[in-house]
Design brief:
The chain is α+β, with helices and mostly antiparallel strands. It folds into two domains: about 90 residues; about 240 residues, BirA Bifunctional Protein, domain 2 (2-Layer Sandwich), CATH 3.30.930.10. It is about 40% helix and about 20% strand. The chain is built from eleven helices and eleven strands. A hairpin with a 2-residue loop joins strand 3 and strand 4. The chain is rod-shaped, with a radius of gyration of 43 Å. The structure holds 3,4-dihydroxyphenylalanine.
Length: about 350
């Protein structure tokens, strides 16, 4: 067999085996086998040129070099080929179809009580009140004593309190605040001189059996305005305006006398029933009375004004407390307060 014939056969075998290679590792193994610098078959042939008889050396060398370039070319072509295939595969598996509609992003929203809280605060801000905050874990002093609810006072029983277990001087002195009223004193303490005009929103806690109108956690807004010459008519004007902003311009309000230790006189404000407008004996919202109680208020007790370092002979004020869940129940006609905190998205998504 001539040198050329055997080189041709080698080339055929090499190319056939390269054609079978499918992945980089196989191609590399092939390269090492044929073109590897130490043990490659073609390399061995090139090394063998010197051992050929003088008259065949040139032809052998030429054939070996020809084989080497042929295989190198085939290798480069094969590698190109593989790359192209990989790219083609990518464009089918990971193609971006710019004509597809986007995936909808689930949109969150504010909880109905938060929405209501913000609307209430906005109503007061528009009347010149600023927003302040106070702690949820409160001293019994601020929650009760400073608000004129001493230990032996029956009014202390109005609240079933959640106490913090830690004893201080042998006594429980901290609790989860039962109302936002402690912030009346807190705000005055850090305001050296009237005027004071704040609303203080926040969560309050009561150890309470829950039912359709009671939750053990509730949101309140405390309001406080203290200045020279603040009168009951100011209280009425501000709260009337609040009712109209929240429940419609045509609202009417009525004030009844009530008792809260921290105000004198104390009142409860009701507004006309915007559901039945006073005509429905079976109205679930006003129970046929035509009126809906919405908040407690009053003129700040002079003792509290004086304790804050102000002079009750000169400074007077009014205060109010609003249950935000109650406002939310009313404005949307929700029947059970427990809906708010059961986290049922079907309920919450409606608002
Ligand atoms: N703190 C009272 C409560 O939780 C609400 C309240 C009533 C606040 C009358 C006031 C007020 O500021 O004047 O039931």
């Amino acid at each position: 067999m001539s040198t050329e014939d055997s080189f041709d056969q080698l080339r055929t075998r090499a190319l056939a085996s390269l054609a079978e290679a499918r992945v980089d590792a196989e191609i590399d193994a092939w390269r090492v086998e044929w073109l590897g610098r130490t043990d490659g078959r073609v390399t061995a042939l090139l090394r063998a040129v010197r051992e050929q008889p003088q008259d065949q050396r040139a032809a052998f060398g030429q054939a070996a070099n020809g084989l080497k370039s042929a295989l190198e070319e085939a290798l480069a072509a094969k590698q190109d080929d593989l790359k192209r295939q990989a790219l083609a595969a990518l464009s089918t598996t990971q193609a971006i179809d710019v004509t597809l509609p986007g995936r909808p992003q689930p949109l969150g929203r504010l909880h109905p009580v938060t929405q209501t809280l913000r609307d209430c605060l906005k109503a007061f801000q528009e009347m010149g009140f600023r927003v302040a905050e106070g702690p949820e874990v409160e001293w019994a002093y601020y929650n009760f004593d400073a608000a004129r609810i001493p230990e032996d006072h029956p009014a202390r029983d109005m609240w079933d309190t959640i106490w913090v277990n830690t004893l201080i001087d042998g006594e429980r002195k901290m609790l989860l605040r039962t109302h936002t009223t402690p912030n009346q004193v807190r705000v005055m303490e850090r305001t050296p001189e009237p005027p004071v005009r704040v609303v203080v929103p926040g969560k309050c806690y009561r150890q309470e059996a829950t039912d359709a109108t009671h939750e053990w956690m509730l949101t309140q807004i405390e309001g406080l305005a203290v200045d020279e010459g603040v009168r009951m008519s100011d209280l009425k004007g501000v709260l009337y305006e609040f009712a109209r902003k929240m429940f419609g311009q045509e609202r009417k309000v009525i004030f009844h006398h009530s008792y809260f230790p921290f105000v004198e006189p104390g009142v409860e404000m009701a507004m006309d029933c915007f559901i039945c407008r006073g005509s429905g004996a079976e109205c679930k919202t006003c129970h046929g009375t035509g009126w809906i109680e919405i908040l407690g208020a009053g003129m700040v007790h002079p003792e509290i004004i004086d304790n804050a370092g102000y002079d009750s002979a000169k400074h007077t004020g009014f205060a109010f407390g609003i249950g935000v869940e109650r406002v939310a129940l009313l404005r949307w006609g929700i029947e059970d307060i427990r809906n708010f905190y059961q986290n049922d998205l079907r309920f919450l998504r409606q608002f």
